[in-house]
Amino acid sequence: MQKHKRIEIPKFIKVMWRNVSIVKDDPSFMKDNVDCYGSYDKRVEKLNLQPELKNEILANTLLHEIIHISISDMSLNQELKTMNLLSDDQEEMITNSVANHLTTIFKDNDWLLPFLQQEIKGDNK
Questions:
Q1: Is residue 7 a part of any domain in this protein?
Q2: What is the CATH number of the domain that holds 97?
Q3: What is the pLDDT of residues 101-122, one digit of tens each?
Q4: Among 82, 62, 58, which Cα is nearest to 15's?
């Protein structure tokens, strides 16, 4: 597989109709002694990543937070009168499992991400 120039994380990621800011910063809940690498704050459309993350852990954490954004966008964590569709624990378990699984698939199949981009964008080179 051809090596590409290193891509730095931009300041924003476009999600549907909006831009979500990406900030390398300690999540505010770290002071509560919670072991988290990143967070998503829907109220301010901000995705936080701990600044020391690198390589596979950074990629996995970014993907993990994007899945949280998707779950929120689809209202799968919505509170209903009689129940929550997903509890916080259920959302975290699903998000973690999917992010870990996809990260491994992408890592083990170098062709997959470039192929998906090619097909999604219609690049027939």
A1: no
A2: 1.10.10
A3: 999 999 999 999 999 999 999 8
A4: 62
Task: Find, among 1, 41, 51, 2, the residue nearest to 21 by Cα.
Answer: 41
In the chain, which residue ranges form alpha helices assigned H by DSSP?
A: 55-73, 88-108, 112-121
Does residue 38 form part of some domain? yes
Torsion of CA 79, 82, 85, 86, to 10 degrees: 80
Summarize pLDDT for 4-38 with one digit per residue, the tens.
788 899 999 999 999 999 998 865 444 545 578 89
Count of alpha carbons within 13 angstroms of residue 41, beta-carbon side: 13
Domain that holds residue 57: 13-121
> Are 39 and 65 a contacting pair, CB within 8 Å?
yes
